[in-house]
Structures are given as C-alpha cells and as structure tokens.
Amino acid sequence: MAGNFKGLTIEITGDATQLESVLLSIKRTSRSVQSEVEAVGKAMKLDPTNTALAAKYYDSMADKLTLTQKRAEAMRQEQDRLNEKLKEYHQTITGLPAGSEAYQAVEQKIAETEAEQQRLNTELAEYKQKLETLRGDAESYERIRKAIGDAEKKQLDLSEKIALYKTELQGLEKGSEAYKKVERQLKNAQNSQQVLTDRLKNYKNE
User: Fold this and answer.
1) CA dist 47 to 34, 51, 102, 124, Å?
2) Which end of the chain has fewer CB within 10 Å, C or N?
3) What per-residue confidence (pLDDT) applies to 7?
4) Cα-based distances in Å from 135 to 54, 55, 56, 75, 205
C-alpha cells in the first residue's frame, strides 16, 4: 500500500522495520502540520478578518485529519502482519517437542507478539477516537468555510453598491428627495456591511 502527502511517500509492507519508518515519517510530518495549525491560529487571533489565514488554517486541519487517517491505516496493516506472524508461530510450535529449547523459543515469540498486538490494539483504539473527533471538526470547518465564502461574496456586492451610491450622491442636489433616498440606501448598505464584518469575525473565531 502506498500514499503521498506533500512529498511524503509511504509504502506499508510486512516488514516491521518498514512500518516503524512509515510511522516515524508520519509523526515528523504531523508535528510540522501541528506547528502550522498553532502558528496560523495565533495569527488569526491578531487578524480575525484575514481570509487567507482562515483558508490556510482550515487546510492545515484537513492535513491533520489526513495524517491521522494514514497513521491509523499503518497500524491496521501492522495488525495484519502480527496476525500472520502468530499463525506461523503456532504452526511451528505444533511440530516441536514440548519443553524443548526450540519450543520455548517459539513460545516466547508468541508471548512477545501477543503483547505487541495488545499494545497496538490499545493505540489503534485511541487513534480511532481521534479520527472521529477530527472528522467532526472537519465537518464544522467545511460549514464555516462555506459560510465565510457566502458572507464575503455578499460583502463584495455591498462594497460595489456603496461605491455606486456615493457616486450617485455627488450628482444629486443635497437635501432633495432623490438625495435623501440614495442616502438612506447608502446607510442601509453600510449597516449591512458592518453586520457581515462582525459575522465574519465570529466565524473565524469559531
């Protein structure tokens, strides 16, 4: 099995050393992604209306989910490898004299493999829980991302309207009915724009 992630290529085989290398690579990349998430999160607190930062933050969280999925998949592959090893050991031990040195050596291998299997099962259960949490977060991030996109589009439309109203006012007689009408439209558009700005701040602080 192979997968790519920002230059990281992993290939999971029946080799325990290969698996350790895979998990180490994922761990290093995960640390880098986590550092990016934390750095962007801090930057967003200083500039909550920065759309580029918000997009980068949500992308980093998606990367974190992907890496967690890859780690869980690697551990599932290791479970399969351990199961095959246990089958081989059990087949081997049936052909050995009970109590012999060879028998005891294989028996020790069985015990070690079963202990490793138990450790892996516990770790995999923890990662499954992490995945469920991250998937829930990813759904929230996607909802917020869409809401931000919609709000920004409306904000852009309002900016264009405000510019048009201001231009229109320059050609009208101040105090006239037409002037007052456009002035009201301008004020309403500015109020709506402020509401959207506040909403964007709230979205990006979620």
Assistant:
1) 20, 9, 67, 38
2) C
3) 39
4) 18, 17, 18, 19, 19
pTM above 0.90, yes or no: no
Q: What are phi and psi of 198, to 5 degrees?
A: -65, -40
Q: How far apart are CA 15 and CA 9, in angstroms?
A: 16
Give the tokens for residue 49: 């209306």
For the chain (206 residues), the mean pLDDT of every run of 10, in chain order, is 37 53 74 79 71 72 77 81 85 84 84 82 75 68 71 81 88 87 86 77 60
- Bridge partners (DSSP) listed for residue 10: 3
pLDDT score, position 48: 62
Listing DSSP states for 74-115 in one string gives HHHHHHHHHHHHHHHHHHHHTTS-TTSHHHHHHHHHHHHHHH
**25 with 3: CB under 8 angstroms?**
no
Distance (Å, rounded) from C-alpha 86 to C-alpha 114? Answer: 8
Would you state the structure tokens that stand for residue 128, as one six-digit string? Answer: 């499954």
Integer Cα distance of 64 and 30 in angstroms: 7
* 136, two tokens: 């829930």
> Residue 87: CB partners within 8 Å, gap ≥ 6?
none
